[in-house]
Specification:
- The chain is an alpha+beta fold.
- 54% of the residues lie in helices and 17% in strands.
- It has helices at residues 2-69, 75-83, 153-166, and strands spanning 89-90, 93-94, 103-108, 113-119, 128-134, 140-144.
- The longest helix is centred in the first third of the chain and has 68 residues, at 2-69.
- The termini are far apart.
- Mean pLDDT is 85; it is low at 155-167.
Length: 167
């Protein structure tokens, strides 16, 4: 009779152990999903931002190329060219309405004559931009693409000051 009781107790313990394993497995899966969900959402958001920046900056590079190759590099031409284009992406999806417009600003001061084309909001009104520079007679000089290349404008001034101080 001892063997029969031991066998029944063993079967009951095995069934309880299997039930415990499935209960823990179910709970572990739920916990893992809860842990991973915010990480996946953050990654999806960041991927969307990278795609926005890449697609929109490709448009700016296209405009730089078109302006550089064009015989007419006037401010009016650059403004008209920028106004004719639409940003491909805004906040992770296709741009619509006024959000799809590129921003432009014309500067006509004694220190600088230029037109800036960009998108997004950041320091100076643009997140990413390029600038077409002109001389005092409004003749084309060059195109400043330092921002698109990731070169900060302020860095150059700080480096120049540092060099002067060390001399």
């Amino acid at each position: 009779m001892n063997k029969k009781n031991a066998m029944i107790a063993s079967i009951i313990l095995n069934v309880m152990l299997l039930a415990l394993v499935f209960m823990v497995k179910s709970n572990a899966t739920k916990q893992a999903q809860e842990f991973v969900k915010p990480i996946q959402e953050k990654a999806k958001y960041q991927i969307g931002q990278v795609k926005d920046i890449t697609d929109n900056n490709n448009l700016l590079w296209s405009l730089v190329d078109t302006t550089w190759k064009s015989p007419d590099k006037s401010k009016a031409f650059v403004k008209k060219l920028a106004d004719s284009q639409k940003l491909p992406r805004c906040s992770g999806k296709a741009c619509t309405g006024d959000d799809a417009r590129l921003k432009t600003s014309v500067t006509n001061t004694a220190q600088e004559r230029s037109i800036t084309v960009g998108w997004g909001s950041g320091r100076g009104g643009y997140k990413y931009w390029f600038k077409v520079l002109y001389d005092a007679k409004d003749k084309f000089v060059t195109i400043d693409v330092n921002d698109l290349l990731g070169k900060s404008v302020d860095t150059g001034a700080e480096e120049a000051e540092g060099e002067e101080a060390s001399q």
